[in-house]
Amino acid sequence: MTLEWQNACKTFTDKKAVDNLSLEVSEGELLVLIGPSGCGKTTSLKMINRLVQPDSGAVFVNGRDVSEVPATELRRHIGYVIQQVGLFPHMSVADNVAAVPRLLKWEKDRIDDRVKELLNLVGLPADEFADAWPSRLSGGEAQRVGVARALAADPPILLMDEPFGAVDPLTREVLQREFLRIQSTLGKTVVFVTHDLDEAIRLGDRIAVMNEGRLAAVAAPGELLLNADPFIRDFTGEDRALRRLARLSVGAAIGEATPITAAGFSGGGESGAPAGSVRTDATLKEALSMMLEAGETSLEAVSPAGRRIGKLTMEDLLESAAGTEAS
Ligand SMILES: Nc1ncnc2c1ncn2[C@@H]1O[C@H](COP(=O)(O)OP(=O)(O)O)[C@@H](O)[C@H]1O
Ligand SMILES: [Mg+2]
User: Fold this and answer.
1) Best mutation site among 11, 13, 15 for ligand 1, i.e. most ligand atoms within 8 A of its Cβ?
2) Could you tell me the CATH number of the domain that includes residue 317?
3) How far from the centroid of its chain's Cα atoms is residue 35's Cα?
4) Which of 191, 214, 240 is the last residue of a domain?
5) Environment of ion ligand 2 (residues, CB < 5 A)
6) Could you tell me if 217 and 315 lie in one domain?
7) Which of 60, 92, 113, 259 has its CA 20 to 30 A from that of 125?
8) Which of 43, 46, 83, 211 has most ligand 1 atoms within 8 Å of CB, for mutation?
9) Which residues does a 6 A CB cutoff place in the pocket of ligand 1?
10) Residue 216 belongs to what H/E stretch?
11) What is the CATH number of the domain that holds 17?
12) Residues 255, 136: one domain?
């Protein structure tokens, strides 16, 4: 399903929270909304599931103006994950995940199967977690249940409002990686709100930057980090070249279509490749770090299975950082 804001505006008392937002999200796209606190991200998101009504302009889901779709019908197609999770404390994990399918009056067996499938999908073995109480879960586990619950009725659209904002950085990286894996198989249309630029770069197919209610830029992560607009340059920070490198795989830099995988997210160090070499699924930022550490200007690029693929040179890194190489 597609999404679109068309000249959407929202003013609270005298403050323009969202100022003429026009933006489209295509089917299966993961769009990240980012910007400083109070810039209008949550308000924009809530326009989609009608928790906020625009004063003017409109929001469309699959070409239909949401103001003309009954809220309950609309929300059936939209999973919603928020930072505070909002699990029902008096219900087991399984019952939390089953909440929407029950509302939809699914058969009991179908619900049981679905709950098991989802808990396993989000990395919480059903045997261990189905009967657990929310109060016993760690922050990361609770967020996983939140994601499972949002996915329960298989909605084509997922809205996520700083879903991993309350967990520690290491857990957050694990959750991001798992979410990317889930998204790569499910292909939902996702709007993901964050104020964490690294999270945006890691997850987003495109990143929309908001500033004081307005859309300041929308671009693929690699392009965004090359944007010359003063606000965007300031927002993306001094280390935007390093951030570009963190988004690109070694394989991509030497012309092999290797996506970044778990190894690329491990934060460097243990890449599993022999000395003087780097895995094609590592990030270019990790490769740079290895070159600096080893005092080398090139590394052998090897496949995750250990096969030699080619040579990664400092030149390749410079080109990728400068964006002269396609991202
Ligand atoms: N229900 C509300 N009543 C009054 N002001 C609000 C309400 N919701 C949001 N705002 C204001 O609108 C602006 C944008 O808020 P919000 O969309 O929550 O920003 P963000 O999610 O980017 O931090 C802020 O100034 C906020 O204080
Ligand atoms: Mg918010």
Assistant:
1) 15
2) 3.90.1280.20
3) 15
4) 240
5) 42
6) no
7) 259
8) 43
9) 12, 15, 17, 35, 37-43
10) strand 214-219
11) 3.40.50.300
12) no
Same domain for 68 and 132: yes
Closest CA to 236 of 214, 221, 253: 221
Q: Could you list the residue range(s) of the whole structural domain that residue 261 is in?
A: 242-322
Ligand (nearest to CA of 210)? 1
* Domain-located, residue 296: yes
Angular region, 85: left φ>0, alpha ψ -120 to 50, beta rest: left
Task: Look at residue 179 and tell me if it is in a domain.
Answer: yes
Q: Is residue 327 a part of any domain in this protein?
A: no
pTM flag (> 0.85)? no
Ligand 1 atom at minimum distance from 36 CA: 22
Q: What is the mean pLDDT of each run of 10 residues along the chain (327 residues)?
A: 97 95 98 96 97 97 96 91 84 95 94 95 94 93 92 94 88 89 93 93 94 96 87 86 87 79 45 80 92 90 90 90 62
The two three-digit tokens of residue 121, written as one number? 């999908």
Q: Residue 39 falls within a domain, yes or no?
A: yes
